[in-house]
Design goal:
The structure holds two protein chains of two kinds.
Chain A: H1 2-39, H2 42-60, E1 62-69, E2 76-83, H3 89-102, E3 118-123, E4 128-133, H4 136-139, H5 145-162, E5 168-173, E6 191-192, E7 198-199
Parallel strand pairs in A: 4-5
Antiparallel strand pairs in A: 1-2, 3-4, 5-6
Helix pairs in contact in A: 3-5
Chain B: H1 6-13, H2 28-34, H3 38-50, E1 70-75, H4 93-112, E2 115-118, H5 128-137, E3 142-147, E4 160-164, H6 180-184, H7 211-229, E5 236-239, E6 251-255, H8 262-268, H9 271-292
Parallel strand pairs in B: 1-2, 1-3, 3-6, 4-5
Antiparallel strand pairs in B: 4-6
Helix pairs in contact in B: 4-9, 7-9
Classes of the chains: A alpha+beta, B alpha/beta.
């Protein structure tokens, strides 16, 4: 009887030890997970720091790359404008376009009239930015296929340069898709980020 | 010359396809020219033709017939709400394009014996798709759209020539031709006067078949215009331009310069300058037709 109890006691002690090891293992895994979480896995760390960085930039201002026409109207040139851009793609897109409308600081040429208003900006999950301008974009444009091309490229390049999420841009005028910007350039569909001028 | 040929005038009065498109030569600024004595006009045109540089074959004036090519000229802008560019002293793009198209059409008919169709002959605002539709309906062999647009700054900008390029898709036209004559030899069967028996082409892809030919003609236009107006020009470019996209024939857009430049506006007010520009276009058409033969 005594030995039987001893055996059972010995056997119970052995089971408790195994459970202890299991619990210790679970605790170790949990601890490691918590530690990994606290230190941060790469994606979360990036998002966190990126958001923090963007928040800081929203307060102190951030340099945006704004594209205007060269004085000879043969190319686009970038200016660096420091503005509070905001942390989201939507805010950065809108801030970039506001700077484009505000115009160049140097001797570059403005491509969009100062009378133009941004009615709305929307970026979908596929990276298409829908930018709704006031009708002044068309009405105040000097016309001519070349000038239209420069205007469209400056809008596209300014957005793509400052908002990596944007892959293409659909121009809207007063909430609607239109045939041309000012009589020549086809803007019925989104302009791709690879949209470039070809010269032969 | 065929200036007073009854057949030319008859063609110019009532287009066979109906609608507003009529042939060149009946707008008011050039009515006065028709009243000049024939001898003076013939002599003047002969001198002008003789002064052309020796680019391609000489200008010909064969009698017009059913096999004559159809050249569609498209004066940009038009109407009260689509005046286009405006010069510092008030010259309007819609007037310049119509004047240049009318004069060019008259010279093409007289010197080349081709049929000419204008997408508008008065100050009317013709939609872009209607212009393309008219050109396709008459089975044009060449489509030349004319512009005199503005610029971002009131600085000089010389003429530019454009052909259609989507810039977002690879050209389905295949490899570059070996030379200009090979390229010009790719001409399709004539479609004029009857519905085409070929498979239907999506409206938006009408120009794709003619990308190389359009580019060739744009280069010829650039070369001849440089010779005529003594300017370097800004070159030949491919852009997604309407209505070129919808035109089912070789098609180009010629922007003769920035009307917002005071110096250029003064040039455009000079009929002699417009005459030289028109002759440059005529010579380019002649060169293109010579390559196709």
């Amino acid at each position: 009887m005594r030995s039987h109890r001893r055996v059972r006691r010995v056997g119970g002690k052995s089971g408790a030890g195994a459970w202890g090891w299991i619990c210790a293992g679970i605790l170790l895994v949990l601890g490691a997970t918590v530690l990994w979480w606290l230190l941060g896995f790469p994606g979360r760390s990036h998002t966190s720091s990126d958001t923090a960085e963007r928040s800081a930039k929203a307060v102190t201002g951030e340099e945006l790359s704004i594209w205007f026409a060269s004085p000879q109207e043969d190319a686009l040139v970038a200016e660096r404008h420091r503005v509070p851009a905001g942390p989201t793609p939507f805010e950065r897109a809108k801030a970039s376009l506001q700077e484009l409308i505000a115009g160049p600081k140097g001797d570059a040429l403005r491509t969009v009239s100062a009378e133009v208003k941004i009615r709305e900006v929307f970026i979908d999950e596929q990276g298409t930015a829908y930018v709704d301008f006031s009708e002044a974009l068309s009405q105040t444009h000097p016309g001519g296929p070349w000038a239209e091309m420069l205007t469209l490229r400056s809008i596209l390049q300014t957005l793509v340069a400052n908002v990596p999420e944007i892959k293409r841009v659909q121009i809207l005028i007063e909430g609607r898709e239109v045939e041309t910007l000012a009589g020549h350039m086809d803007i019925r569909r989104p302009l791709d980020a690879t949209w470039v001028m070809s010269q032969r | 010359m065929l200036l007073h040929s009854p057949s030319v005038r008859a063609r110019g009065s009532v287009p066979p396809w109906g609608g507003e498109g009529v042939t060149a030569g009946n707008s008011e600024p050039f009515q006065a020219l028709r009243r000049w004595p024939i001898a003076v006009l013939v002599a003047g045109l002969t001198i002008l033709a003789a002064s052309l540089p020796s680019v391609g074959e000489p200008l010909l004036s064969p009698p017009p017939d059913e096999e004559s090519p159809v050249i569609v000229l498209d004066p940009g802008r038009g109407g009260a709400s689509n005046i286009g560019g405006r010069g510092p002293t008030g010259l309007l793009e819609k007037d310049i394009t119509l004047q240049l198209a009318t004069e060019t059409g008259r010279l093409i008919e007289e010197l080349l014996g081709a049929h000419v169709v204008l997408t508008r002959t008065d100050d009317s605002d013709v939609p872009l798709d209607a212009r393309a539709a008219l050109a396709n309906q008459v089975g044009g062999d060449l489509f030349i759209s004319l512009a005199a647009g503005g610029a971002l700054a009131p600085t000089p900008r010389e003429f530019q020539t454009f052909y259609f390029d989507d810039l977002q898709e690879k050209s389905p036209a295949g490899p570059e031709p070996a030379n200009e004559r090979d390229l010009a030899g790719e001409a399709r069967p004539r479609r004029r006067g009857a519905l085409s028996s070929s498979p239907s082409i999506p409206w938006d892809q009408a120009q794709l078949e003619f990308l190389d030919a359009s580019q060739l003609f744009a280069r010829l236009l650039d070369k001849n215009l440089r010779a005529q107006v003594a300017e370097e020009g800004r070159g030949v470019f491919g852009l997604p331009i309407l209505p070129l996209r919808w035109v089912r024939m070789p098609a180009v857009l010629l922007d003769v310069g920035a009307l917002s430049d005071p110096g250029f506006e003064a040039k455009l007010r000079d009929n002699a300058y417009l005459q030289r520009a028109a002759l440059g276009i005529v010579q380019a058409v002649n060169d293109y037709q010579a390559l196709r033969r």
